[in-house]
Amino acid sequence: MSRKRTRLSSEEEMSGKLLEMGSGEQNGSETSFTSSTNLPPTDSIQSLQTAAPFSTDPIAIAERERCHYGRIPRAAALAGTAPRRVRVYSDGIYDMFHQGHARQLQQAKTVFPNVYLIVGVCSDSLTHSRKGRTVMTEDERYEAVRHCRYVDEVVRDAPWEYDEEFLDKHKIDFVAHDDIPYTTEDCEDTYAMIKAKDMFVATERTEGVSTSDIVARIVRDYDIYVRRNLARGYSAKELNVSFLNEKKFRLQNKMDELKDKGKKVMTNIGEKRVDILTKWEEKSRELIDAFLLLFGPDGRLSSIWNESKGRLMQALSQPPSPRSSPPPSENGDSHSHSPTHRGSASPPPPKSRRYETLWEAQAGNWMYRALNVLGSRKRPYSAS
Questions:
Q1: Which of 38-47, 319-328, 366-375 has the lowest mean pLDDT?
Q2: Cβ distance 2 to 25 under 8 Å?
Q3: Domain limits of the chain?
Q4: Which residues lie within the region annotated Disordered (predicted)?
């Protein structure tokens, strides 16, 4: 346990010395800790651990009290020879905080080598009266800005125009904003006084993105976003949608769900199609081989058919008639007594052949009688 405590205490001591970022001795040893480019400054570490404080928080008040205010000349600020951190102020509405806002604040933070960035955010009442309605509330806009890593301090309810009292209160050295003149009802350029005092530093706007562009996209795709929020559980009352429009949007959501399911089914079929075709090709080859083996020219069915055909033709063919006996000779002797046929007389026909001959004769008699009967039925009756 003692070793563990010793190790922890030594690590805490080492971390504290690394965060000091200044020169110093390590418990009387010759090793000294100096600032290094590999280690971030203390304010950067603090900004990553916590959100930027408001101007009324004790941390911001202490930072402001430590500042010996006297406006730093531009040349000293650019050269990085100022005796303290340069306090740069930037303001805006910061509605629907986006990357354009973050890039503008990044430029304000890096306009000089060592900058303490103060960001003013206007309230809802002032913004609605001067510019128009916002999407986010003032508290939401305050929180969005103070969680940007470039911001060191946030001023709530920032003024629309500047005066010497405001600049002295927050000990502002420079004001950062885009160089486009910002006109009001009272003056042509709100930053005219700041520019006259050589306290203005220009930042560049990010082309292609702004709060107005984002709102225009939402208005353009209004139906899509309403349908999305209905699908996520919002009620028609919360979205200010009529009863009929709600039913229409919900029906469209159902149709989209069916389309998505159909696409998934077709995708699955497309993935399995290759396997199905491969298996079908294998099965078709087996079927073709079996078909040729059975119905081919040398197949079993052809052999069976040829054998059956031969037997059938043999059964249907008429048996040959027996040979007639030679006529008797002039002497009245038969050919059996002639010397040429002596000993070569043909044997009597077999019994089956005799039956066939009798059957044929009988069949002929039956046929003759049937024809006579049919002929007699067709004769007309006589007059008598």
A1: 38-47
A2: no
A3: 58-202, 211-261+273-299
A4: 1-45, 313-356
